[in-house]
Specification:
With 150 residues, this protein is mainly β. It has two helices and nine strands. Strands 1, 2, 5, 6, 7, 8 and 9 form a seven-stranded antiparallel sheet that branches. The protein has a two-stranded antiparallel sheet with strand order 3-4. A hairpin with a 5-residue loop joins strand 6 and strand 7. The protein is extended, with a radius of gyration of 20 Å. InterPro entries: CHP02241, Phage_T4_Gp19. It comes from Portibacter lacus. This is Phage tail protein. Pfam families: Phage_T4_gp19.
């Protein structure tokens, strides 16, 4: 690493949920992993199983943001009444893009999420004795993530 370089901070990011950019406070679940397979033939001279890569497992993506008066972007994406045929028929799930930005606003790293379907919306809790912002969260299951370094 060159002495004049500094790692990109994680607080400047952009989220496109297919219908345009939405400002979120937090994105979690950008992980995926390969399951592994073990196999050993009965006449193998070694008493050790062979390891191979199996299917890729993906987690649930969660997006959190503050609730704003009159803003319905997250609810419009989730609302099963409006999108029942779209999501349940598997004809047109969403493709999402999460971009990590540098100081100049240029995407340094992008997560392209394929086949995302909203499965849960949470509007947090309400407390009369707490001085906090109201937060909403939407969760997606998906068919994989492609990571791109720009």
């Amino acid at each position: 690493m060159a002495a004049d370089k500094f790692p990109v901070p994680k607080f400047h990011f952009n989220v496109d949920l297919g219908s345009g950019n939405i400002s979120f406070q937090e994105v979690t679940g950008l992980d995926q992993e390969f399951e592994h397979l073990e196999y050993r033939s009965g006449d193998d001279a070694e008493y050790v199983t062979q390891k191979r890569i199996g299917l890729k497992k993906t987690g649930t993506l969660s997006f959190k943001k503050g609730i704003f008066s009159g803003e319905t972007d997250v609810l419009d994406i989730y609302e099963p009444g409006n999108n029942k045929e779209k999501y349940y028929s598997n004809q047109d799930p969403l493709d999402l893009v999460i971009s990590l930005m540098d100081e100049a606003g240029t995407a340094v790293l992008e997560w392209a999420v394929r086949g995302a379907v909203p499965v849960k919306i949470t509007n947090g809790d309400l407390k009369s004795d707490e001085n906090a912002i109201a937060i909403e969260q939407i969760d997606f299951v998906h068919s994989g993530i492609t990571l791109t370094h720009n």
